Amino acid sequence: MFGLFQRTRTQTIxxxxxxxxxxxxxxxxxxxGAPGDPTSPPTVPNTxxxxxxxxxxxxxNGLFQISGSVADEHPSGLMITFGGIASxxxxxxxxxxxxxxxxxxxxxVDGTDAGFxxxxxxxxxxxxxxxxxxxxxxxx
Length: 140
Fold this sequence. Notes:
This is Bacterial Ig-like domain-containing protein. By secondary structure, the chain is an all-beta fold. It contains no helices and 7 strands.
């Protein structure tokens, strides 16, 4: 009778546990590529460009050298648009890598182009500068 009722051992299924561990992220790699650097790269807030040293110098009979500089986070390649005087209205110039710009404009010498030449810069975030102005009197 002992053979009919064999005692079987029950097998237990192994139990797995998941352990969740939280760790601070400030010691992980940061976007600037410096492993273990807890500081993030500095961010420069975007501000509107500013036109400085805007000037118009008479070169010859109605010919003026226009120059200036743009202060901005990224001053290279900004578009400067002129206005205020009919002969310069809508003309544009692009800034150099350091933010400077220069161009030569021929104004009429009959008195119709006398007045304030204006300039506006627009940066790559579509922010406009103040309206810079300089008085031009191209009379002979």
